[in-house]
Amino acid sequence: MEKVSMMINARKLFKDISDLPTIPAIVSKVVSMLDNQDANPDEIADLILSDQVLAARVIRVVNSPLYRTTNQISSVKRALLFIGFKSVREMILTSYFVEGFKQKDQPFDMKMFWMHSFSVGAISRRIARIVDFPDIEKAYLVGILHDIGKVFLGHYCKEGYGRMLASIRNTSYTTYEAEYEFFGTTHCEVGLCLAQRWNFPSVYCDVISYHHSSEMATEDPLLTAIVALADFYCLSHVTADSVAQASIPGRSEENAWNVFKQLATEKLPLSLEHFLSELDEEFETIKQEVDILFDTMTT
Prior knowledge:
Distance between the termini: 39 Å
Helix content: 55-70%
Shape: globular
Order of helices and strands: HHHHHHHHHHHHHHHHH
CATH class of the largest domain: Mainly Alpha
CATH superfamily of the largest domain: Hypothetical protein af1432
Number of domains: 2
Number of strands: 0
Radius of gyration: 19 Å
Number of helices: 17
Structural class: mainly alpha
């Protein structure tokens, strides 16, 4: 699969679209400030408060069962200090992405899609902790966003994407392989186009683009491998549906494991299967957290 031609085909899909969801400029500015550990909480809080919708989302999520606050938090500044800049960053970006595509008709079950996305974020965070990755919140956020290209393809190419999904149901074909055959591109390249439109940081763009070919990642190959392995793990631990992939490790997963072994600073098990099995103990707990997050983000 030739990346340049796939990117050309992906960009063609965007050419005549006028109703693409956007991320407000104020959100991009807040996220940029939250990336800076030296930023002033008062300045960030004031900026968030200038957008009532944004402020309400921050307050709603911080008071959800996900964060188990003992007392109701009604101050944006207190929310920032309580859960930290990076957690607020991931919360804001995720909520706007969910909201932007909430009303878009899809040929697949959107609840299944979001549950998978949130699960990949949670497993990415767990794997990041295991290998002592320096920014576990970043692993969590980009894990949630890794499949954004599927939402675009499902809505803006609905008829063709529906036929594609029907053609691979009950087969060992992956959506990645089928997308390439049907569209000459995949959700990775389409997701990259979306991420660039929304001015995502370059490392987010790279992970979205290469999470099925992490050996090609240039910005942060280890982070890309973390998300790739989390993606595979989650797909292999749920009941198969129309957007699921095969549960047997393929070349993409083996390549990600090789990248992982080369770059991880912590000692790893001898095999990919053994490493993934070590995540099983926490999977039920993670599923419960994902249920809470899903309900909070989509209501």
